[in-house]
Amino acid sequence: MARETIGNPLSWSAQRLAGVGRGFGAAVDGIGSHDLSRPEVRRIGTADLRWALRKGVEDFAALRSDVIVAVVLYPVIGFVLAVWAFNAGQIHLLFPLMAGFTLVGPVAAVGLYEMSRRRELGLEADWGAAFARLAGPVLGPVLALGLGLLAVFVAWLFAAHLIFAATLGPEPYRSLGAFLRDTLTTGPGWAMIVAGMGVGAVFAAVALCLSLVSFPLLIDRPVGVPVALATSLEVVRRNPGAAARWGLLVAVALAVGMIPFFVGLVVVLPVLGHATWHLYRRAVVPGRA
Q1: Residue 149: CA atoms inside 13 Å, Cβ hemisphere, count?
Q2: Is the CB of residue 243 less than 8 Å from the CB of residue 280?
Q3: Where are the bilayer-spanning segments (predicted)?
Q4: How many helices (H) and strands (E) does the chain have?
Q5: Which residues are CB-neighbours of 226 under 8 A, at least 6 positions away?
Q6: Where do the structural domains in the chain lie, given as residue ranges?
Q7: At what angle do helices 46-62 and 64-71 cross, to 10 degrees?
Q8: Residue pLDDT, tens place only, 119-156
Q9: Measured torsion, CA atoms of residues 260, 147, 283, 250, in degrees rounded to the nearest 10
Q10: 263, 264, 267, 269 alpha-carbon torsion, rounded to 10°
Q11: Whole-structure pTM over 0.85, yes or no?
Q12: How many CB atoms lie within 10 A of CB 94?
């Protein structure tokens, strides 16, 4: 009869640290692409956008309670950022902060991509199973790409502040009413609007090109960040009109979802997240099993 032994605390700790180290190593290793061949991409059109959106609504209807749990934090974050802008005397950054959701939205939807993937395969698709996937080789590339979009978001806020300082600033506004009045009724205010919308569109286009299918691809296949980015850029290159229409749809939907007090994001973000997964399925040819 085998004797039961009590493990040495030091050896147990060493085993746990080794496990953590292996997980970290796998996450870092997953950032790179061992196979630099890109997946084949397809041409897509308006009919594909409609199909993806319809499938996104279907996924949301089927997984409603789980996806709401998965995304409820993001409206809270948006509300907290808005409160910070008021209290910190940074009212001029309120709109750039809200618009920034279009830049970092793909990061917020990572769990939703996995839910759609699992439902597609007939697997359990609750939020626990979805986030369990975001470990090991998947975690590293997702975090790396997410940090890239976060850098784009921070650069957008910096640019928005510079535009404000060159037009209505540099003194901050303490009243939202005064800020809106000067923005809408003065020459410098309209100059800020025009410049802000132009520069913001550039940042949005950059984020769209980088993330249109890259996050779903990383969830679906172990391709690494370079291949995921190259594939996303290729999809946009081959389908500029469809990509632009999709970006506009996402921007409008997120803007509507922020009214009132970001509550609408609880519905809008899941639908868009699921729809993005299905758009990826239409735009990228499936890999070999």
Answers
A1: 26
A2: no
A3: 67-87, 93-113, 142-169, 189-213, 246-272
A4: 15, 0
A5: 32, 33, 36
A6: 26-31+48-283
A7: 100
A8: 998 888 777 777 777 766 788 899 999 999 999 999 99
A9: 20
A10: -100
A11: no
A12: 16
51 to 48, 54, 57, 227: CA distances (angstroms): 5, 5, 10, 26
User: In 188-280, which ranges are E strands?
Assistant: none
In terms of Cβ atoms closer than 10 Å to its own Cβ (0-12, 13-18, 19+), residue 196 is buried
Question: Cα–Cα distance between 91 and 280 in angstroms, integer?
Answer: 37
107: Cα within 13 Å, side-chain hemisphere: 22
In tens, the pLDDT along 54-90 reads 999 999 888 876 666 656 666 777 778 878 888 778 8
Q: What CA–CA distance (Å, rounded) separates 282 from 277?
A: 9
Amino acid at 140: G
Residue pointed to by tokens 């409206």: 75
Instruction: Give the number of residues written for the chain.
Output: 289
Least Cα distance to 232 among 131, 99, 141 occurs for 141
Compute the chain's Rg from CA coordinates. Answer: 22
Determine contact, residues 282/42, Cβ cutoff 8 Å.
yes
Angle between helix 265-283 and helix 64-71 axes, rounded to 10 deg:
100
The two tokens of residue 114 are 């996995």
